[in-house]
Amino acid sequence: MRINSNFLVIGSGVAGLTFALKAAEHGTVAVITKREIDESSTSYAQGGIATVFSTEDSFDTHTKDTLVAGAGICHEDIVRMVVEEGPKTINSLIEWGVNFTRNNDSDSYDLTREGGHSQRRILHADDVTGREIERALVEAVSKNKNITVYEYHIAIDLITESKITQKPMSKERCLGAYALDIKSEIVKTFTADVTLLATGGAGKVYLYTCNPDIATGDGVAIAYRAGATIANMEFMQFHPTTLYHPNAKSFLISEAVRGEGAILRRADGTAFMEKYHPLKDLAPRDIVARAIDNEMKIYGDDSAFLDITHKDPEYVRTRFPNIYKTCLEYGLDMTKEPLPVVPAAHYLCGGVLVNEHAETDIENLYAMGEVACTGLHGANRLASNSLLEAAVYAGRAYQHSISKINNSALSNITVPEWNLGKATNSDEMVVVSQNWDEIRRCMWNYVGIVRSNKRLERALHRINLIQKEITEYYWDFIVTSDLIELRNIVTVAELIVLCAKQRKESRGLNYNIDYPDKDDINWKKDTYIRKQF
Ligand code: FAD
Ligand code: SIN
After folding, report:
1. How confident is the model at residue 155 (pLDDT cuts 50, 70, 90)?
2. Which run of H or of E encompasses 217?
3. Ligand 2 centroid vs 465 CA: distance in angstroms?
4. Active site residues
5. 127 ligand 2 Cβ < 6 A
6. Of the candidates 126, 144, 127, 122, the residue with the CA atom closest to the CA atom of residue 18
7. Average of pLDDT values for 349-377?
8. How far is the CA of 123 from the centre of ligand 2 (A)?
9. Taking CA atoms, which of 48, 71, 107, 238 is between 20 and 30 Å from 200?
10. Does residue 303 have its Cβ closer than 6 Å to ligand 2?
């Protein structure tokens, strides 16, 4: 079955839906998304979205804070551009109906703070900012006749011109994507003038993550297989504070809790962040996560503790209603006792390399949001810059891509349907779950907060064995969404390890005990990786 549109958007978080709403003014838009429309990392974002909204703040300070967090390899021109386009972009979100929390005077917005920010500049909707943004965007999309949403459709691979024509091309061109309709088990052919990857992050590559199940790095793996350049994959950000509780599936305790005064302590009650950074509990995230990891290892504690008990309980309950309620469900009252917390995989700073218009190096293929590597985050993302980046780049991709519609190679090429080959039904799902578990455990143990050359070697060896097994399995059986995701997480795991092996220094989120120092002479640059055909 073939579905043609001007724009094909893969993913329905803030990046995909913001783009779809804009693009729908110029043409038809198909949005494919692998679960329900609102199942995305966006929906779980807590702290907020950073931008310069206060007269006490400035573009210069937001730029500077981003550069400092990024540990020397942010692209300054990109940082400045995103920061400067922030207020206008956030006003568009407000026009689409996003209700950010206001101050009591109701004229101004309440601005919160998080790690690495020298100013209060984070707009939020209580402690469920992402849920509110996603709600408003989904509502706007549902009213738009030019947008068709395909839920439970998982993109498998891009359709590229050289694969169809079997001729080498000086520049590869994207014609759409094959996607599995999970419910009917049919692979559909989505063709489009312009294809957008907005598939989010890859936290599920690690055993412990605060990401939802959709975050399997599909877009990175898909783009890599098609020949796009991938960058900076070694920079997986670990959020310092996810709830440590046997029944909590990595529930995040927002950095805004520290922004409003919470203190990190050891099990014996000692506050420790002063030892690590002058900003103490509000130091950049890489430093806080490593400090917690270090304290846990030195003192043999199972977790650190986040203490906000010194604040007025009523304030805590109203400022963090969702966190308060969720912790209470686990038997923890944050107004009375410190919360046990541990770091977990949170955000992929690297991804598909794009230019300032969100263009990849494959023609007619754009990437935006967490799947992309724009140069904004460098070696460590500043808190709440991610929703901002996704929304800014959606606007830029839209402006750049409208000239490409009704102008693609599609009219001259016959796109074949997905080839099922001699695949038969799989009854060996145990292989999938075994490999899935092994990769995530291996990444957590060998490619986590602290790395070493030996651990990276071991990880690569394991990953390559699993990869071989999956490749055989993948082509022998009918594709399922579990198999598609497994193939993607193993590819992303490999890319993370290969980039971490390239970088022979410690910078930002990549800490390697064999190269404990930053090496500005040789490594003040990005790492790149591209599939060799
Ligand atoms: P997502 O919102 O993750 O959307 C990806 C979409 O792609 C989903 O719809 C998914 O189903 C779909 N998809 C994936 N693969 C496929 C496929 N193969 N086929 C079809 N569809 C596919 N950032 C901030 O700036 N501020 C915060 O306060 C903040 N808090 C966070 C809290 C948590 C718990 C988490 C997990 C993240 C947080 N982040 C925060 C990060 C931020 O939420 C994400 O980086 C951002 O929402 C990513 O948006 P996106 O549109 O790129 O991807
Ligand atoms: C948080 O609320 O701590 C997450 C913020 C972010 O990841 O930007």
Report:
1. very high
2. none
3. 35
4. 285
5. no
6. 144
7. 98
8. 12
9. 71
10. no
> Whose CA is closest to atom 6 on ligand 1?
11
Q: What is the pLDDT of residue 425?
A: 66
Contacts of 487 (CB under 8 A, 6+ apart): 221, 470, 471, 474
Q: Which residue's entry shows tokens 């297989």?
A: 225
Closest ligand by atom to 320 CA: 2
**Dist. CA 41 → ligand 1 center (Å):** 3
How many angstroms separate the alpha carbon of residue 237 from the centre of ligand 1?
Answer: 14
C-alpha–C-alpha distance, residues 180 and 188, integer Å: 6
CB 18 within 8 A of CB 197: no
In this structure, the strands spanning 263-265 and 304-307 are antiparallel
Q: Is the model more confident about 249 or about 219?
A: 219
- Which ligand has the minimum distance to the alpha carbon of residue 256? 2
In the three-class reduction of DSSP (H, G, I as helix; E, B as strand; rest coil), residue 15 is classed as helix
Q: Is the pLDDT of residue 421 over 70?
A: no
The pLDDT of residue 473: 77
Other CB atoms within 10 Å distance of the CB of residue 459 = 24
User: What is the distance between the alpha carbons of residues 237 and 112, in angstroms, rounded to a whole number?
Assistant: 21
Q: Which of 243, 255, 323 to mutate to test the pocket of ligand 2 (most atoms within 8 A of CB)?
A: 255
Tell me the whole-structure pTM to 2 decimals. 0.97
Report whether 344 contacts 237 (CB < 8 A).
Answer: no
**What length is written for the chain?**
533
> Which ligand does the CA of 157 lie closest to?
1
User: What is the atom index within ligand 1 of the atom nearest the CA of 200?
Assistant: 53
Element (H, E) at 175: strand 174-181
d(CA 503, CA 287) in angstroms, rounded, equals 19
pLDDT score of 475: 73
SS (H, E, C) 475-515: HHECCCHHHHHHHHHHHHHHHHHHHHHHCCCCECCECECCC
Strand order in the sheet with 111-112: 49-50, 122-123, 111-112
Q: Tens of pLDDT along 258-292?
A: 999 999 999 999 999 999 999 999 998 999 999 99
pLDDT at position 408: 61
Distance, in Å, from the CA atom of 28 to the CA atom of 406, rounded to the nearest integer, reads 11
Ligand 1 atom nearest 222 alpha carbon: 18
475 — alpha (psi -120 to 50), left (phi > 0) or beta? alpha
DSSP string, 60-78: HHHHHHHHHHTTT-S-HHH
Taking residues 348-374, report their average pLDDT. Answer: 98
Q: How far is the CA of 214 from the centre of ligand 1 (A)?
A: 8
Cβ < 6 A, ligand 1 pocket: 10-16, 32-35, 39-42, 44-49, 129-130, 154-155, 198-201, 210-211, 214, 218, 252, 347, 369-371, 384-387, 390
Report the separation in Å between the CA atom of 384 and the middle of ligand 1, taken as the mean of its atom positions: 13
